[in-house]
Amino acid sequence: MRSYVYILSNKKEGVLYIGVTSNLIKRIYEHKQGFVDGFSKKYNTKDLVYYETFDDIENAILREKKLKNWHRQWKLNLINDFNPSWIDLYNSLL
C-alpha cells in the first residue's frame, strides 16, 4: 500500500507539521478544511510544502519519526531543496 510522509506549513519557514498517511490528497484536504483537530488546526498549517512516497506504511512511519526528531534547520533545508519557493503542492497532486 502506497504511503506518504508530508510536511505542512502556515508560511515560508513558518510553523511545520509532519504527518503520515495512506491517502495524501484526502488527508491534505482534511487539513485544509480544518477537519483535523490539534496542532495543525491550532497553528493553521495548511500548505503542503514537502512529501515523500513509500511502498508501505511501516517505512513511512519510521521516516516520520526520524523527521520529527530532526533539528528544525535540517527540516528547513529539506523543504528548501525540494520546494525552494515553498509553494503549496496540493494542487499539483490533483
UniProtKB/TrEMBL annotation:
<dbReference type="InterPro" id="IPR050190">
    <property type="entry name" value="UPF0213_domain"/>
</dbReference>
<protein>
    <submittedName>
        <fullName>Endonuclease</fullName>
    </submittedName>
</protein>
<dbReference type="InterPro" id="IPR035901">
    <property type="entry name" value="GIY-YIG_endonuc_sf"/>
</dbReference>
<keyword id="KW-0540">Nuclease</keyword>
<comment type="similarity">
    <text>Belongs to the UPF0213 family.</text>
</comment>
<dbReference type="GO" id="GO:0004519">
    <property type="term" value="F:endonuclease activity"/>
</dbReference>
<keyword id="KW-0255">Endonuclease</keyword>
<keyword id="KW-0378">Hydrolase</keyword>
<dbReference type="Pfam" id="PF01541">
    <property type="entry name" value="GIY-YIG"/>
</dbReference>
<dbReference type="InterPro" id="IPR000305">
    <property type="entry name" value="GIY-YIG_endonuc"/>
</dbReference>
<feature type="domain" description="GIY-YIG">
    <location>
        <begin position="1"/>
        <end position="78"/>
    </location>
</feature>
